[in-house]
């Protein structure tokens, strides 16, 4: 793997775990939902590649050409918009990790594919449940 590949993996692992953590904390501290918090925490802990030092060495924040936020990233309308943005962030990162995981081995790719599909499932079941509660 090149340093650029490792840099991409590092950024997407961080993005995946950060997105999951935001959603996890909403269900932990705002909704007091132990079960969903537990599921999200398990996904977050499953989100790893065991080459931490190589990933850290590849990190180059100073030269990130897209580190500035877009206008849409600077605003959120409500709690649902925070949840949706972070589900999407995590799902997109899981997809990148799934694809680049194929360069490591099929098992790594499969781990991130399963994380992505679990995030799709949680997003649908949780947000559908909230809609039913408000109706």
Describe this entry's structure for a reader:
There is one protein chain. The mean pLDDT is 87. The chain has one domain (3-58, 77-134). The protein is built from 5 helices and no strands. With 135 residues, the protein is mainly α. It is globular.
Keywords:
5 helices, 135 residues, globular, mainly alpha
At a glance:
The protein has helices spanning 3-30, 34-46, 52-58, 79-101, 106-134. It is mainly alpha-helical and 135 residues long.
Taking the sheet with the most strands, its summary is: none
Query: Low-confidence segments, ≥5 residues, pLDDT <50?
Result: none
Give the structural class: mainly alpha
Order of helices and strands: HHHHH
- Average pLDDT confidence is 87
Alpha carbon gyration radius: 16 Å
SSE diagram, text form:
Elements: H1 3-30, H2 34-46, H3 52-58, H4 79-101, H5 106-134
Helix pairs in contact: 1-2, 1-3, 1-4, 2-5, 4-5
